Amino acid sequence: MEINLSEKRIIVTGGATGIGRASSLRVSQDGAKVALFDINEKDSQKTIDAIRSSGGEARFWNVDVGDEDVVSRSVSEAEAWLGGIDSLLHFAGVLWGASVELDEFPEETWDTVLDINLRGTYLMSKYVVAVMKKQKSGVIILAASGAGVRGGSSSYAYGSSKGGVHGLTMVMQNALPKYGIRVHDIAPGSVKSPLKIGQMKSSAERTGNTTNVDRAIETLNDPEDVANIVAFMASDQAKLLRGTVFTG
């Protein structure tokens, strides 16, 4: 299916690697102008270079999504550069504390994961929504997880943070359509990304079950397949789509 994102102005967080990188490349391929937010400058630049080498427009901002001042300033700068914001594709996040028992779970790890995954989602949404309300249009796609909807996470903090993202999405879905804003979250399953691979290796080392970890990594879904769905969700062709999308 051909997806039309011509002249769309899109912010992608977590665009250095994984689903964020694949989505940045895909929406650019479909005609969008991309503002890429991440703290990983080296890999972000690789994404930017790949977009530009294919004739697309992209620019990088070094953004810690848990820092409100940085988020506010960067969204404002990106709005000016893009000329508006049609979509937010929010994939920035961490998966720490894999296979750690609850009674041994470090409070610092809990706080950091919730700060980045949940508070970061709230902050990005807060400042992007302010722009979209002025425009009376926009699409927001947030990264949830089956771990936050169905349980089964290897990390108490990660599963809880993604459950919070899902809850935030449901509230936004109800509150924002009157401003012309469509909101989704996507639960992408097990995807081949540094975040997921790191979690699998960490769990294997902690549990001592390292025998089949490399084979398991090879069975992970490709981020490009998720990016194809994300690009459609961001397009006007998906204007009747509602709710959570599960993949994988």
Automatic annotation (TrEMBL):
Pfam families: adh_short (PF00106). The gene is bacC_5. Belongs to the short-chain dehydrogenases/reductases (SDR) family. Its EC number is 1.1.1.385. Keywords: Oxidoreductase. This is Dihydroanticapsin 7-dehydrogenase. Transmembrane segments: none annotated. It is an enzyme of class 1 (oxidoreductase). GO terms for molecular function: oxidoreductase activity. It comes from Candidatus Moanibacter tarae. PROSITE patterns: ADH_SHORT. SUPFAM superfamilies: NAD(P)-binding Rossmann-fold domains.
